[in-house]
Design a protein that fits this description.
There is one protein chain. With about 290 residues, the protein is an alpha/beta fold. It has one domain: Alpha/Beta hydrolase fold, catalytic domain (Rossmann fold, 3-Layer(aba) Sandwich). About 30% of the residues lie in helices and about 20% in strands. It has 10 helices and 12 strands. Helix 2 packs across helix 3 and helix 5 crosses helix 6.
């Protein structure tokens, strides 16, 4: 089945001013079952094309670009690239969608946004999938990400951009050449001279670098407040979500169901049929 998507946007606000939040929409707009898929720190909503196609017969699937990424506007104040901003934008987006309840799939940063939103009283999140993220963010992984975030060079051509994405995203695990091209296409932008650059505001690195925790970041209060059914997917080689954290998540808060994906680190891309099936089976189960 050929599933078409629609590119849309909604206007959001921070103390620094207005910005546009872009999102792709799949499936029947009249479907009251809404699935939001939120990407990782330097990625974009088109990461979920494969999952969205697979879910569009059951859901109205919404894949936002976080502020400063993809087709969304850049924030005037870089220090507003924070969790609170992203949660507020999601509330505005859900109001635009007229969605009283949603299912949520979040990869890495997208999972943090989902945790924060699901932890609130009267939350619209009724089922939650956390893809390789939890309430403890390992310092070693944050340091690794900080080494490249906001520092990507300009690439002379698309092939060089693919080579770069394959290098920094090697923990995603094995993918075909065609899949690596897809994983590069939407997070890079072609310039007038034929070169390519990353398709995000380099300033997203400002608050990330300013934090410099040097130690794990713990978000247990968010997680422990969640009451909806929760699934946690971990790349078995992940350096962000440790196995002991995964095990603890199964025993407290929402007592999440847990799954590990072999031979994958941070983070599973949810592009492959076996990974899609894990998400689909959880979301559609009664």
């Amino acid at each position: 089945m050929n599933v078409e998507f629609r590119q849309r946007q909604v206007q959001c606000i921070t103390p620094g001013g207005l910005h546009q939040l872009a999102y792709t929409e799949w499936g029947d707009r009249a479907n009251c079952k809404v699935l939001v898929c939120m990407h990782g720190l330097s990625r974009c909503g088109r990461d979920f094309d494969s999952l969205a196609r697979a879910m569009a017969s059951d859901y109205r699937v919404i894949c936002p670009d976080a502020p400063g990424r993809g087709l969304s506007g850049w924030l005037k104040n870089p220090m507003e690239y924070q969790l609170q901003t992203y949660v507020a934008d999601m509330v505005t987006l859900l109001a635009r969608l007229d969605a009283d309840s949603v299912h949520w799939v979040g990869t890495s940063m997208g999972g943090m946004i989902g945790m924060a939103l699901a932890s609130l009283a009267e939350t619209p999140v009724k089922k939650l999938v956390l893809n390789d993220v939890g309430p403890v963010l390992a310092a070693a992984s944050l340091a690794r990400i900080g080494e490249y975030l906001g520092k990507a060079p300009q690439f002379p051509d698309f092939a060089a951009a693919v080579q770069y994405i394959r290098a920094v995203s090697a923990p995603f695990g094995a993918h075909s050449d065609a899949e690596w091209s897809i994983l590069t296409e939407h997070v890079t932008r072609r310039q007038a001279d034929g070169s390519y650059r990353m398709h995000y505001d380099p300033a997203i690195a400002v608050p990330f670098s300013a934090a410099k925790p040097g130690k794990d970041i713990e978000l247990w209060p968010y997680y422990d407040a969640i009451r909806c059914p929760t699934l946690v997917i971990r790349g078995a080689l992940s350096d962000l979500l440790r196995r002991e954290t995964l095990q603890e998540m199964a025993g407290r808060g929402p007592r999440a169901r847990t799954v590990e994906i072999p031979e994958v680190g941070h983070a599973p891309t949810l592009m492959h049929a076996d990974q899609i099936a894990i998400v689909r089976d959880f979301l559609l189960a009664d």
